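not sure who needs this but someone in the group chat was asking about AIG1-type G domain-containing protein from Lepisosteus oculatus so here u go. i didnt clean anything up, its just raw.
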Amino acid sequence: VLAGTPLHVVQVIEVLLGRVWTGKSSAGNTILGREEFDTRRLTEECEKRQGEVAGRLLTVIDTPGWYSLQDTADWLKKEIVRSVSLCPPGPHSFLLTIPLAPFTEQDRRAVEEHLGLLGDRVWRHTLVLFTWGDGKGGTGLEQAIKRGGEDLQRLVEKCGNRVHVLHNNNTGDRGQVTELLEKIEALVAGSPDAFFLGSDGRITQEEQEKKQRDQCPEAKEEIQWEKGKLQQRQKN
């Protein structure tokens, strides 16, 4: 970097996914450090909010929650898929909100069905975000996952064992948010793609970069710079 050149703020893009009443909107508010999403009502369409958090430019997309496998309307499925298009070139991570509570086979199948709308590659970019987890952390979290049963353990494994507990009742604890962002950066640094680019390779890295380059000549350079910055941060 040349002397006098301002340092760019690393941009982190997150999409919140989960069943209704799992604390998605509350998690978005906790992460951003302010009340941006309305927690008094159900989210009916994707909502995008931004802010600077822990030295990073953060974009958070909240999505409508599902009820069960059988009750998901087509419009809700379309909103889940649409969430990716709201943050070009694509999100770095999907935060799957799950309360630390009993988790059944039906719960697991519902998660797999709805995330499956985005294709198999979505699991490379997904982190399980346990909400309302006051008092759970470290070995306590490991024990809670075991108590959650085989289906919860299978889901966590499918997400690469990437987990984090967010205490939505303790929004003043910014350390938990910084730790979450560091886990997302580790996810990105270890992924072949910095961004989630589409379902099952129908949108390839090269196609996405060309699309962004056509819209903005500096887009490809920005994509490469951002992934390099995240990898360097992870090494440090």
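also The helical segments are 24-32, 74-82, 105-115, 139-147, 150-158, 175-189, 205-215, 219-235. if thats useful
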